[in-house]
Amino acid sequence: MPWENILNNTSYISVTCTVDQLTVNNEMFVNVKVKDAIVDKLRRETSVRPDSGPDMTGVVIHLYWKDDRAEVFIDTSGETLAKHGYRKIPGKAPMLEALAASTVMATKWDRQAPFINPMCGSGTVAIEAALQATNRRPGLYRSNYSFMHLKNFDVQVYQAELQKLRDQVKEVPGLQIVATDISDDAINISKVNAGIAGVENVIQFKRCDFALTDVPEGKEGIIYFNPEYGERLGDVKELEETYARMGDFLKQKCKGYTGYIFTGNLDLAKKIGLKARRRIEFYNAKIDCRLLEYELYAGSKDKDRREKVSQE
Ligand SMILES: C[S@@+](CC[C@H](N)C(=O)[O-])C[C@H]1O[C@@H](n2cnc3c(N)ncnc32)[C@H](O)[C@@H]1O
């Protein structure tokens, strides 16, 4: 390959690979072989041998090798796009930003009604909701991509695209996004992360048990929980009680809302004591999870009315 036409000889290079080949038992050797081939070619053509190593901060080349077929890719992102760049402090058992964002998108939220997020942890769900409502794109929080280290990178094109993202940001007066958690640390971390994302004024934070979260009455908002589910944190017996309390809270304090619980433990979810109207599949790394949706009718009359409307 004419790597000298694609890469600067001053770029730091790293190689990643996906290998499914009987003769390979350690992918590191594959990475080193590919890296040597590229930097040696650059040295032959330009007399300079670029630096290389495992960091994904410069040029990233990816090798896909299955049986007798291998393909080499330029990875234009480097560090995964699933991280959105604002979360400098992860907290305990945080959701990956892209996962949190896609679960918010899977809800019925219209980006104007109240969005209530008890058990907010490091704030990821509430922050992603705030980003979506105010049209803030993850590209605003990241300043390094692998494509920037390629020879034909045009900084002016990039700056113009970035400016478009800045111009798209809008404020939504009266928007109510509430994030609460029982842990002081979690609330402090959430505030820092929201500050980095520029949405600290969009979210109201409060340290409290979830049952003391203020849910604005008379609205048809969203209430979204991501409780512990026994895989990484929390003891299952104690959690059974917490899930039952969450069910009571949804029934008694969240009338008119649509409730969501994101969990990887469907046995615990049964303790909520409400019938889920939708069960949306997600994977949290390798954990098979569900976003459970609950319609929390304002009252039996209201329920009758809605059913009548849906039949018409
Ligand atoms: C799985 S974590 C949430 C992670 C979050 N989605 C994130 O991305 O960072 C669950 C959170 O529930 C909180 N929590 C546990 N019991 C609680 C309770 N009774 N009331 C309020 N928060 C509680 C914990 O402090 C923890 O931060």
Quick structural summary:
With 312 residues, this protein is α/β, with parallel strands linked by helices. 34% of the residues lie in helices and 20% in strands.
**Count of distinct strands:** 10
Backbone CA Rg = 24 Å
Instruction: Give the number of helices.
Output: 9
- Largest sheet features: 7 strands, mixed
Query: So, CATH architecture of the largest domain?
Result: 3-Layer(aba) Sandwich
Helix content: 25-40%
Strand arrangement across the biggest beta sheet: 6-5-4-7-8-10-9
CATH topology of the largest domain: Rossmann fold
Bound molecules: S-adenosylmethionine
Q: How many separate structural domains?
A: 2
List keywords for this structure.
single chain, alpha/beta, THUMP fold, Rossmann fold, 2 domains, 7-stranded mixed sheet, 3-stranded mixed sheet, 10 strands, elongated, binds S-adenosylmethionine
